[in-house]
Amino acid sequence: MPNIAVFIEQRDGALKKVAWQMISEARKIADAHGGEVWGVFLGPDATEATAEAGKHGAHKVFTASGDNLTAYNSEAWGAALANFCKSNNPDLLMVGSTSMGKDLGPKVAAKLDCACISDAVGLSFDGSFEYRRPIFAGKCFVDLTSSTSVTVIGVRPNAFMVNEVGGTATVETFDADVDGIDLKAVVKSVEASSGGQIELTEAETVVSGGRGIKGPENYQLIEKLADALTAAAGASRAVVDAEWVDYSHQVGQTGKTVGPNLYIAAGISGAIQHLAGMSSSKCIVAINKDANAPIFKVADYGIVGDLFDILPALTDEVGKLKS
Ligand SMILES: Cc1cc2nc3c(=O)[nH]c(=O)nc-3n(C[C@H](O)[C@H](O)[C@H](O)COP(=O)(O)OP(=O)(O)OC[C@H]3O[C@@H](n4cnc5c(N)ncnc54)[C@H](O)[C@@H]3O)c2cc1C
Questions:
Q1: CATH number at residue 8
Q2: Could you tell me if 130 and 189 are in contact, meaning their C-beta atoms sit under 8 angstroms apart?
Q3: End-to-end C-alpha distance for the chain, whole angstroms
Q4: What total of structural domains would you count in the chain?
Q5: Do 149 and 12 share a structural domain?
Q6: Residue 187 resides in a domain
Q7: Full-model pTM
Q8: b (16+ CB within 10 A) / e for 16-43
Q9: Is 169 in the same domain as 206?
Q10: How many angstroms does the Cα of residue 273 sit away from the middle of ligand 1?
Q11: Pocket test for ligand 1, best of 289, 295, 298 (most atoms within 8 A of CB)
Q12: Is 273 in the pocket of ligand 1 (CB under 6 A)?
């Protein structure tokens, strides 16, 4: 009967939906094998987090707040999560593989001296946990077990479906024991590079452009379709290296890993390093004028044609459907 703790990430009060995906998946295991699902929330005002966590299947939400738990700080937050695990002994701690989670998860695991499995896309339980993660730039998957009493896993956003069970979680505060600790580094301010835009790694739809867009002036074709679809705008490294868009848009091995429900690749050849960042997308649509482009091997739907005709036509059609 495993107890699964799920870190509910917030930045400036905004909750990350990967938490509801993890809680939904954890609840499936609890329903099948017993045990409880616990949300863990750090920061002031856990009201919304608790309501959402309960709705998605958490039995309980543990909360802690204080000066060191208001703005994110890996040292204090890492210690707080590790202290939570020491006093409550979950069998598993799930942390979203967001930029915060990638920083936090390994720190907690190091403090607990336990296994840390990053970028998990699958989880099962049959007396013990088994975790699935991609290796070799997404070319294959490996299934792992852990021999430590608690395991920290980083979970790729959108790897699991959100499920609503409509429950109510109870709330319990815990002593994070980080008040007054002498932080070695303090975050003075955070400047978001993609003000107002949808975060690539969490987007449900991504539209990406490659060298086929020919120049920076044409990236607006990608952005227009992305806007119409309420999607995030991505790019191949060729586009980023040419300085047509900022690095924050790069998808791939040396960029961001995305796992949306829909990924539209326009003018992207499908190099292995690009596929490494998007091949776990649920549905891939490729637009390329070369019918032999490798991207078509991973695409669910392929459009062989000129992106300069297809992107505006698609954007128009989406606009018509929405109106
Ligand atoms: C260590 C390393 C790490 C890397 N990391 C990454 C990474 O993180 N992300 C990444 O993307 N790449 C990465 N790369 C680079 C990668 O190998 C490719 O060079 C890059 O992905 C190619 O980008 P592209 O598909 O946009 O360009 P190209 O390969 O030049 O493809 C352009 C495509 O556009 C099509 N096209 C041209 N005109 C049109 C048109 N009018 N309409 C429709 N289609 C058109 C062409 O047929 C072609 O298929 C990495 C490489 C290395 C060595």
A1: 3.40.50.620
A2: no
A3: 50
A4: 2
A5: yes
A6: no
A7: 0.86
A8: bbbbbbbbbbbbbbbeeeebbbbbbbbb
A9: no
A10: 9
A11: 289
A12: yes
Place of tokens 């044409």: 218
pLDDT tens, the chain, 323 aa long: 899 999 999 988 899 999 999 999 999 999 999 999 999 999 999 999 999 999 999 999 999 999 999 889 999 999 999 999 999 999 999 999 998 999 999 999 999 999 999 999 999 999 999 999 998 878 899 999 999 999 999 999 999 999 999 999 999 999 999 998 888 988 888 777 655 578 898 899 999 999 999 999 999 999 999 999 999 999 999 999 999 999 999 999 999 999 999 999 999 999 999 999 999 899 999 999 999 999 999 999 999 999 999 999 999 999 999 88
Strands 140-144 and 262-266: unpaired
Identify the burial level of 204 via C-beta atoms within 10 angstroms of its C-beta, where 0-12 means exposed, 13-18 middle and 19 or more buried. middle
Q: Which residues of 251-286 are buried (b: 16+ CB within 10 A; e: fewer)?
A: bbbebbbbbbebbbbbbbbbbeebbbbbbbbeebbb
Domain that holds residue 65: 4-173
Quick check: CB of 211 below 6 Å from ligand 1?
A: yes
Token pair in block for residue 276: 């490494």
> What are 143's two structure tokens?
């299934």
